[in-house]
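// run 5 | inverse folding | seed 20
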């Protein structure tokens, strides 16, 4: 399953900081979550859009998440509620025909983490760049470079299909941010403060 966190097309900097903070909180809660691609914001740890992959069914997290925190960047600013969109992108069962070999650049790198003696001795991690759109997908969860390449290609196929479906008539870079306006009512989750602590409901 691929989960997309988005600050929206016109979201302020605080929403992009919220994307990064909520992503870190989710990754601490669900250790198998892996960042596969994202669009960075103006400051460290901020993202306008972030895609994460997991083997778990986290579809119940889809909706809007709220971050309650005074702005770390605008002292005295009255607003303390920032909203992040969370949506689910179904993974492709197979690599779509829209991905041509000449449209992708494949790079391999040392994959860290668990895995015994194989780790850091073999370049198993794979980073795929889709040249026409500039989208970059990484995969490190498998033990072989081939399997990580196939995994990354399937994720890329799912992302491209989502972009095409959501924004068939828009510019590709506009299509990346799925929502121009985030629904703010009844958030699925609420996080508090710069530590992004989950508020129990």
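// decoded
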């Amino acid at each position: 399953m691929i989960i997309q966190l988005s600050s929206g097309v016109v979201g302020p900097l605080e929403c992009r900081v919220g994307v990064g903070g909520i992503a870190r909180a989710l990754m601490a809660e669900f250790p198998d979550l892996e960042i596969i691609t994202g669009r960075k914001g103006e400051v460290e740890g901020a993202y306008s859009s972030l895609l994460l992959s997991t083997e778990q069914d986290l579809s119940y997290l889809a909706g809007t998440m709220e971050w309650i925190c005074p702005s770390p960047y605008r002292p005295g600013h009255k607003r303390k509620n920032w909203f992040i969109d969370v949506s689910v992108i179904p993974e492709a069962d197979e690599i779509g025909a829209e991905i041509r070999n000449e449209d992708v650049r494949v790079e391999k790198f040392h994959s860290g983490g668990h895995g015994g003696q194989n780790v850091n001795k073999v370049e198993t991690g794979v980073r795929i760049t889709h040249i026409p759109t500039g989208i970059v997908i990484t995969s490190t969860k498998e033990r072989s470079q081939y399997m990580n390449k196939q995994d990354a290609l399937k994720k890329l196929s799912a992302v491209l299909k989502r972009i095409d479906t959501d924004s068939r008539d828009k510019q590709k870079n506009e299509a990346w941010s799925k929502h121009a306006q985030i629904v703010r009512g009844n958030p699925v989750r609420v996080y508090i403060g710069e530590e992004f602590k989950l508020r129990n409901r």
